[in-house]
Amino acid sequence: MENSMFCYQCQETSRGIACVLKGVCGKNSSTSSAMDLLLFIVRGVSVVADNLRVKGQAVSPEVDRYIVDALFSTITNANFDDASILNRVDKGLQIRQDLIMQSEKAGIVLPSVDEILWNGQRTEYEEKARSVGVMRESNEDIRSLKELVVYGLKGMAAYLEHAMRLGYNDESIHSFIQSALSQMVVKAMTTDELITIVMRTGEMGVQTMALLDKANTESYGNPEITKVNIGVGSNPGILISGHDLHDIEDLLKQTEGTGVDVYTHGEMLPAHYYPAFKKYKHFVGNYGNAWWKQREEFTAFNGPIVFTTNCIVPPLANAIYKERLFTSNSTGYPGCKHIESEAQGHKDYSEVIALAKNCEAPVSLEEGEIVGGFAHNQVLELADKVVDAVKSGAIRKFVVMAGCDGRMKNREYYSEFAKALPKDCVILTAGCAKYKYNKLNLGDINGIPRVLDAGQCNDSYSLAVIALKLKEVFRLNDINELPIVYNIAWYEQKAVIVLLALLYLGVKNIHLGPTLPAFLSPNVAKILVDNFGISGIGTVDEDLKNFGIVG
Ligand code: SF4
Ligand code: SF3
C-alpha cells in the first residue's frame, strides 16, 4: 500500500519511525497533506518577508500573526479540521501575493523558488502537497536538522502567540522565525550551518519563554503556592483546557454570577496558581488528568469543554460529549463549534455558558487537593530554606522531570521513577508530565514539597531561572555543577523548544524519554550525544544508578 502521509514529529509516531497511513494521534492523511502544504506556503511567505526585512522594509504585523498561527495549528493534537487548515493555505497565498507586490514596488528581486512561484487552485492542493512534505529533503541528516528547527519553531510560535494575546510582542522573534524558515528554502545548507540555526532556535526559545513569563506574571501576578481542589461542586461547570491564560480570564469574567462553575483540565491547571484568578469563587478546581485521558473524563464532566490549544484527542464516533466541545485559536475539530477571537483577542463565551446552564454538574472523579505554584518567584522567596536544606544535606538532589505526558504504557516509567526516588530528592516539574506523579503524596522535606510544580510546559523557563539562581548562590562556574539531574519526558513540539532552550543554556546530560525522537537521524543523534550528553532512559533501577541518584 502506498504511503499516504509522512509525519514523525511527535514521540508517539508509529513504530517509532513515522505515521504513514494515519496518525497514531488520529490525524488523517488528508489533514497531514493539508499541513504539509500549509508549511510550504508558510515557508514561501517567510522567504518574501525575510527579503523585505533584510532590505529594511516593514513587514505588517498581520504577516507575523499569520505565520505564528499557522505554525501553531500544525502542532500535534492542535487541529484535525481540514477545512480550517486549507483556509489558512488560502489566506497564506493571499498574504504571500501582497508581500510579493510590496517587494516589486520596492525593487527587491526575490529568489526563484517554488515556495514563491507556485500558485495553485484548491483542486491542485492535494497533488502539490505530495511533493512538499518532510521527505522532500533527500539527505536524512539535513532533513533531520531542518525538522528539528521547524519543530522548535512550532513550539516557539505557540508560546509567542500566548504572549501576543496578552499584548506582549517581540519583533526579533518573528524576524528570527521568518529568517530561519527562509534560509531552509533559499540555501543549500550544510549540517554545520543547520546546527548553528538549531542553537539559535534554542536561544530564541529562551527569549520567547521569558517574554511569555513576563506577559503572564505582569498580567496575572506571580504564581504562588496553591492548593488546588480536585473534587467537584454541585453547579454545572465549564472545563477549559490548553495553555492560554487570556482565554481563561475571559471565561472567568463572563461566567461570574451565572451559576456556572469553571474547572481546568490538563495544562490549564497552573491557572489556579495566579493571584488574579484566585478571586473568582466559581473557579472551583482542576478536573481529571493529562490530555490523553479526556475521552473518559469529558464524558463524566457533563458540561461544555473549551480547547484553547492542544492537546485534543479525537472523540470516538459515539462520544456523548462531542456536542459539548468548543475549539478556539489554532485548534480545530470537524463538527465542533469554533469560537472566534474578537478584536484584542477577546472571546464571547455566551453560547458555551448557555449550554452549561442546561447541563448536569460534573461527576466526581476524585477528591482532595494537589499543590503547585512553584514558579521562579515563589521558589526564590523560599531560597533561604532551599539553600539550607541543600547545605544540611536534607535535599541531596533535584530531579527535573518536566515535559509532556502521553498515553503510551512505557510512560509508567515516570511514575515508578518518582516513587523510587530516595526521600532526599525533590522533583522539579512543569508541563503535563506532572500528572504521572503529582497525586502520589510524595511528602515534603522540611516543609518543602517533594514535587515542586512550576506550571505549564513553557514554565520550564522558571526551572532554568531557579537553576541559574542556585548556581549563583552556590558560587559555581557551571550550571552542570549543581546537584540537578534532568529526566525529561517529551511528546510534542513545545517540548522540542524547551529542550533546545535548555541546551542553549548549557545544560548537559539531559535524559530524554520515553524514546528519543524519530526525527533524529543516527548522525544527528550522535551530535547531540557527543556535544550535550543527551541520552535516552533505561529501567528505573538502572537509571537511578546511572544518574548518580543511588550508589
Ligand atoms: Fe504521528 Fe505524531 Fe504526526 Fe500524529 S503528530 S501523525 S502521532 S507523528
Ligand atoms: Fe501536554 Fe499536549 Fe506537551 Fe504543554 S498538553 S505539555 S503534551
Description of the molecule:
The protein is α/β, with parallel strands linked by helices and 551 residues long. It has three domains: 24-218, Substrate Binding Domain Of Dnak, Chain:A, Domain 2, CATH 1.20.1270; 226-357, Rossmann fold (3-Layer(aba) Sandwich); 377-546, Rossmann fold (3-Layer(aba) Sandwich), CATH 3.40.50.2030. It is 45% helix and 10% strand. It is built from 19 helices and 15 strands. A six-stranded parallel β-sheet has the order 4-3-2-5-6-7. Strands 13-10-9-14-15 form a five-stranded parallel β-sheet, with helices on one face. Strands 1-8 form a two-stranded antiparallel ribbon. Helix 10 (275-278) links the parallel strand 3 and strand 4 (283-286). Helix 1 packs across helix 5 (122-129). The chain is globular, with a radius of gyration of 23 Å. The model has no long low-confidence stretch (mean pLDDT 97). The structure holds iron/sulfur cluster (SF4) and FE4-S3 cluster (SF3).
CATH class of the largest domain: Mainly Alpha
**Strand order in the sheet with the most strands:** 4-3-2-5-6-7
The CATH topology of the largest domain is what? Substrate Binding Domain Of Dnak, Chain:A, Domain 2
Classify the beta-strand content into a percent band: 5-15%
Helix content: 40-55%
Helix count, per DSSP?
19
Give the CA-CA distance, first to last residue. 52 Å
The multimeric state of the shown protein is: single chain
